[in-house]
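Cont'd.
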Amino acid sequence: MKAAPFEYHAPETPDEALGLLAQFGDEAKVLAGGQSLVPVLALRMARFEHLVDLNRIPALRYVQVDNDVTRVGAMTRHAAIGGSAEIRSRVPLLAEATPHIGHFQIRNRGTIGGSLSHADPGAEYPAVALALDAEIVLASARGTRTVPAAEFFTGTFTTVAEPDEVLTEARFTGRPQGCAVLELARRHGDFALAGVACAVELNSAGRIQSLRIALFGVASTPVRATAAEQAARGAAAGELDPEEVGRAALAGVSCVSDLHADAGYRERVAAHLAGQAIRQALQEARNG
Amino acid sequence: MAEHQLEVMVNGQLVTAMVEPRLTLADFLRDRLRLTGTHLGCEHGVCGACTVLADGAAIRSCLVFAVQMQGVAVATVEGLTPDGGGLSDVQEAFRAEHGLQCGFCTPGFVVSVTAFLAEHPDPSTDQIRDGLSGNLCRCTGYQGIVRAVQATVRARQEARHD
């Protein structure tokens, strides 16, 4: 239960980190909060010749609001996100997701960049990023590119990021009026068997401008319920049946079966949670 | 693999050591500094027995490498007791309320509760249970531990009112 030997690098600037990754390629792994990577190393499920630790790069730790855009630095810890007044007012879905992540000891160390890069299908932040159409900034010595969340996650624990790229920032635009994150886990703090992140915007007539539903824990990546979202657009908020939309959200999603839950159970739980989350988000939007 | 020089404050004392990068903070504390109050249960971040404070924040010491603690102030359960010896108020409450049986998980609980109460001086029972959820105990059934946290809160409130 001890990690295999590795060379340790602790760059103090993003450029220094990108230089190390350019040099070592896929022999190197980025170490962010380490709350998923260190167990993987300890259990010897993976080993790397080089670890590039981002914890000593203060330039990657920030919450910055520019007009309509909220930028969150990759090394911003869950606890900082959960406690940020700016996040709570600008990206409340992110704030609401945070208490569901692990336990407070994990949130003191885990980072948003690490969570997005690790791409656990049961994790909360990837679903939030997908629901809000976040933009994910990837930097390497070759340059910087911005990837929409919808294109970022490619499978369980895999993303479009290349071995020499570092996720440096997540960008969130807009501010939905109502949002909710609900999940079912066997014990609080465990990865979700099924969960949903939901956000809604109403127009001045009280009709649905946009409904955003991202399911997590059900498939190999978080899933947007695009068809159900579009069907709800334009409906009067008071006339929408959240449970029906919740069931529609699962149509076409092929849930996974594993030792924690089978596909049919996941589907029923996710549909129920989606209905509840939509109801909560609508209520918040109407009262707000 | 190259060893790194580490300078870290542990329980208020500056420690300098050469460490292999893969050495976890937990193993550094236990094997190198002989601070064996920090226990290791699962060694992959589930059980909470190895919880320590890093710059005041409770973390799993099995999920960070010692080399990452350069310049950080670490406190272990040994560092939470009063200077003249004896037990901290959290430890006293665990003893009084039967918050432990075998005691293996207790150091992790004491450290977690110490950090939790610093942020939540007047927690609800739900908040207490949520705050305890990152530590596993296989003996007590948790009731005594919840009572110990509540007793600590009461004692601190009474002390303030005196």
